[in-house]
Amino acid sequence: MLCAFIFLNVKRKFGLYIFIVGAIGLILSIFWNFDVSRLIMWGIPSFFIVLGILWVRQIQNNFFQYLGDASYSIYLIQVFSIPVFYKVSSKYFNYTNGNIAAIMCLMFSILCGCLFYKFVETRISNFLKKLNTKRHI
User: InterPro entries from the entry (predicted)?
Assistant: First the structure.
């Protein structure tokens, strides 16, 4: 709510810099374990990332457009891809840093979600659109 309040009531300046500060804070929390609460270690950098992105001028980019289109599939499939990733990786790989494994899991979940979007969601959507079009004729 604070992020929305600031976004709506404060003049939009320095969005990219605010985003960079949040990203650096989050990256630092991966490599150094600060003895502070989770709210400070991850919440504040995440807050700056979201606020900064809101203030950055949007660009047209096919890759990010595709990720946005596939975001619902990524959301749906991650419930399955995360356990699969950790089951397979724990058997075949030994990660000394759990954060690296988490980043790889994130990438794996995005890949699985994009594949699900391409081969399942778009086909179901197209089928339903055709079905709906025939219904209204």
Answer: Acyltransferase_3 (IPR050879)
Same domain (yes/no): 46, 68: no
CB neighbour class for 73 (10 Å; exposed up to 12, middle 13-18, buried from 19): buried
pTM: 0.70
Q: What's the Rg (C-alpha) of the chain?
A: 20
Domain with 88, as residue range(s), is 62-136
Q: Mark whether 49 and 14 lie in a shared domain.
A: yes
Are the C-beta atoms of residues 109 and 70 closer than 8 Å to each other? no
Do residues 129 and 66 share a domain?
yes
CA distances from 18 to 13, 47, 123 (A): 9, 10, 39
Per-residue pLDDT tens listing for the chain (137 residues):
999 998 889 887 788 999 999 999 998 887 777 788 888 888 999 999 999 999 888 888 999 999 999 999 999 999 999 999 999 988 888 776 787 888 899 999 999 999 999 999 999 999 999 988 877 66
